[in-house]
Amino acid sequence: MPLSRVEPKGSVVISARDFLIRGLLAGLLAAFAAFAVAYVVGEPPVRAAIALEASGGHSHGAETEAAGEHSDAAEEAPAPGEVEVPRSLQSTVGMLTGMLVAGTVLGGLIGVVSALAMGRFGRLSARSSTLAVTGIGFVTVYAVPFLLYPPNPPAVGSGDTIGIRTALFFVFLAISLIAAMTAVLVGRRAAGRLGGWYASLAAIVGYVVVMLIVMALLPTYNEVPDNFPASVLYDFRRASFLTQFTLWAVLGIVLAEFVGRLSGPTAATAERELADAGA
Amino acid sequence: MSNTATQAQPAPRAPGAIAVPKLSVRQIVPWLLFAALLALVGLYFVTAEQGATSLIAGNAVHEWVHDSRHLLGFPCH
What we know:
Number of strands of chain B: 2
Order of helices and strands of chain A: EEHHHHHH
Strand content of chain A: under 5%
Number of domains of chain B: 1
Distance between the termini of chain A: 35 Å
Distance between the termini of chain B: 44 Å
Strand order of the largest sheet of chain A: 1-2
Shape of chain B: elongated
Structural class of chain A: mainly alpha
Oligomer: heterodimer
Helix content of chain B: 40-55%
Radius of gyration of chain A: 23 Å
Number of helices of chain A: 6
Largest interface: A-B, 84 and 55 residues
Order of helices and strands of chain B: EEHHH
Strand content of chain B: 5-15%
Radius of gyration of chain B: 21 Å
Largest sheet of chain A: 2 strands, antiparallel
Strand order of the largest sheet of chain B: 1-2
């Protein structure tokens, strides 16, 4: 696959399709990296949490049986249509499947958004605007929701509230996305009057203020069992953060590299010419 | 954003500035919709299916992606 189609005159023709394909590919690579981090850093606290759950010291209480091989659905006898996936598969190919699907589709979306951002983020180069899109994505989609609704390991969370907790989580995620998109659009508009620096600061302050207000208004749930070890909870949340950070960082860097090549020998050459001239 | 050409066009070059190519919004929108739909469906199955809501009966999807759902930070159960 040629990285860019060069027209006779040397000008490069780029399409949104090029960004989609590169985004999907970058997302796929990022998913493997995220899986590796999740497996190494995340599985120990997940195992510890499941062991605690199996030992009966949590909210599912009396129903818990002393089953050796444990998965979350294993407490109740499997109903028709219910399956029990062994931990050995859940922690390996199961988790890899989830990461690959999530990473790939996320990469495709970030790729196309980067196509939109190219040339529209002040004077940022194509590579820089791609990194900016990915960075904003990480903060908006993961880091800010993490602050209000931190991720929980198995054995934390009541089945009675899973519906409302899921709804609130996605509502907050949607608000965060809409607030971030609005901030970017308003910032771009203000850049003419305030200049890029102050317009960016104003956009960031606006986003933060909106999110703080929303966070103050939305209800939160603390369903960590009393005897749940704080260190396991911390390890799990840190692992979740590292997993998502890896996913977005690898996605952003790989995609920026692809986009840098795509946006062409022209831009790269011009940069080098400038650097040479400056030297 | 009124540029409707279907090809990347170098922005007017300021002296000493590097021209960053720009794609027309019209060209991007269908791809954006497609990518957004793909992401919505894909992420739904990894992060929410057979948790609070369920399109497919049973718990196979939930069980299979269980660990990734937890570690990506979504409410699992």
